[in-house]
Design brief:
Length: about 160
């Protein structure tokens, strides 16, 4: 059975997700951010989370080789971050958007929460790789509305 990729994408868009930025420091010390919605909890003991990265993404080498990174869950007020860091060629993190975490990865200011991670394992996932990260630190939780994506649009929770 062949599945049309556009139909599959539309069908998957019926699952509402939070929106996150994954940040990492490149070899040259430049801070990068990438918008994702493929974030999931895996285990509490040990503390593991996962996300996936398209193999042909221009930013692939930065994240595929990052020993540490941060996953920031975005607030509704951070829609502009989501849009900016989802653009091809737009992954260099603005200095005003972050501070360095204890693991050396950038933490997004005013995010709902930041998960500092070390790479535990990379797994093949077809046209993506699945990055399994061990959570080494969690920031304080900011009480604010989350950024939610559903049906190809940002939405608000009622």
């Amino acid at each position: 059975m062949n599945i049309d990729s556009r139909e599959l994408r539309d069908a998957l868009g019926q699952f509402s997700t939070g929106v996150c930025l994954v940040t990492a420091a490149g070899d040259e010390g430049v801070a990068y951010a990438l918008t994702i919605n493929s974030f999931a909890s895996v285990s509490l003991d040990p503390p593991l989370v996962l996300w996936s990265l398209q193999k042909d993404a221009e930013i692939f080498p930065v994240y595929a080789n990052a020993a540490t990174y941060c996953i920031a869950v975005l607030a509704a007020s951070q829609e502009a971050h989501s849009t900016a860091y989802a653009q091809k060629g737009g992954h260099r993190l603005s200095d005003s958007d972050y501070e360095l975490g204890t693991n050396g990865a950038p933490l997004i200011k005013n995010a709902l929460v930041n998960f500092e991670c070390s790479l535990e394992q990379s797994l093949d996932g077809g046209d993506h790789i699945i990055l399994l990260g061990r959570v080494t630190r969690v920031s304080e939780i900011e009480a604010q509305a989350p950024l939610v994506f559903f049906g190809g649009e940002y939405r608000e929770l009622q």
